[in-house]
């Protein structure tokens, strides 16, 4: 009887863990501006090192949260003012097994560091629109409006 109690407690604890992960993901996805994506965390083995996550658009930032984590703080923050897309490709080799076939891999550069993110092809369109919708130039460097002076009236 003792073994059944231990197995029951372990199963209950496992269910609580799964419920907590599900609830955290749902809380992150409340409201609008969230996408499913994968971020490459390691490049040691070609085609491997992808981590599933949820991205939230907050102002000029894309905050990337890991899918299977208890943390409410984002793992990465991509700032659109310094983010640039270097290339776009389809998943290759072992990557095709870890992500759906209609996903696209983007090689991004932010402050000199390269970051690979993968998302659905339809999501890429929205992501690129968000990226291009930012104001030109650096924050606070908006050029003043030119002043128009009236011409003197000719008689």
**Within the largest sheet, what's the order of strands?**
4-3-2-1-7-6-5
In percent terms, what proportion of residues is strand? 25-35%
**What is the CATH superfamily of the domain at 31-132?**
Pleckstrin-homology domain (PH domain)/Phosphotyrosine-binding domain (PTB)
Secondary structure class reads alpha+beta
CATH architecture of the domain at 31-132: Roll
Radius of gyration: 23 Å
Question: Main β-sheet: number of strands, strand sense, barrel status?
Answer: 7 strands, antiparallel
Total number of beta strands:
7
Distance between the termini: 110 Å
Q: What percent of the residues sit in helical stretches (DSSP H or I)?
A: 25-40%
Fill in the CATH topology of the domain at 31-132: PH-domain like
Shape: elongated
Query: Regions with pLDDT < 50 over 5+ consecutive residues?
Result: 139-146
Average of the residue pLDDT scores: 81
**Helix-strand pattern:** HEEEEEHEEH
Number of helices: 3
